[in-house]
Amino acid sequence: MRKGFAKLGFIALGLVLALALCGIGYAHWGETLNIEGTLITGEWESGGTIGFWKNWDKHKTFTEAEIEGWIGSINATSKWLGPTTVEEMGEMLSENCQSNMKCKFLQQYLATRLNDESALLSLTANCNFHDPDDYLGLGGSGTLSEIIAAIEGKYPDAPDVPGAVWPTKDEYEIMKDICDALNNTGGIYPYYF
Question: Are residues 107 and 92 in contact, defined by beta-carbon separation less than 8 angstroms?
Answer without folding.
Answer: yes
